[in-house]
Every structure is written in structure tokens, then in C-alpha cells.
Amino acid sequence: MNPDPQQMHGILAAIIGVYFVFFVIFLAIVILPFWFILKKAGFSPWLSLINVVPFGTLILLYVVAFAEWKVIPASQIAWQPPVYPPMPPLPPQS
User: Fold this and answer.
1) pLDDT digits (tens, 9 = 90+) for 53-88
2) Which residue in 18, 57, 62, 65 is deepest, having the highest Cβ count within 10 Å?
């Protein structure tokens, strides 16, 4: 039983199409969080495209982890812990 070459080409085209769709979804899942992290860290968000290169994600993680971030720390004025007055000393026990 010989397979029809036209049918085999159709099946191969479908497999490549499905693979391409999964590849684009996977890239979006990886690149999108890096885009926002790099933008918040003060780097160019376009660096997230390094993830397309093999081992690019690992390289980018080390760059982000050990680089000096160019952001100003947020002030902590949103919530201040309450300040209680000191407790008076306890009377001596007899």
C-alpha cells in the first residue's frame, strides 16, 4: 500500500501549521513577561526578543539579575507602622 504523495504533502503542511501556531503561542508566553520586567527595570523592552535565540532566556536572566537597575525606588509613604507610646514601668510585686 503506497501512500498518495499529495495526501502526504497535505498532512505535512497541516503539521507544520500547527507547529507554527504552538511556537508563536510559546514565544508570546515567554516574551511578554520579560517585556514588562525589562521595562520596569529600566532596560529596553526589545531585549526580550533575545529569548528567541537558543539559551537566550538564560543569558537574559543573568543580565537582569546582575545588572544595575536604572529605576528610582518607590517611596514607602503608603503605609506607616503605628507608633505606640512607651509602656510605663510595672509597679514592684510584693
Assistant:
1) 889 889 999 988 888 887 766 665 666 777 888 888
2) 57
Enter the pTM of the model.
0.58
Burial degree of 11 (CB within 10 A; 0-12, 13-18, 19+): exposed
Could you write out the three-class secondary structure of the chain? Answer: CCCCHHHHHHHHHHHHHHHHHHHHHHHHHHHHHHHHHHHHHCCCHHHHHHHHCCCHHHHHHHHHHHCCCCCCCCCCCCCCCCCCCCCCCCCCCC
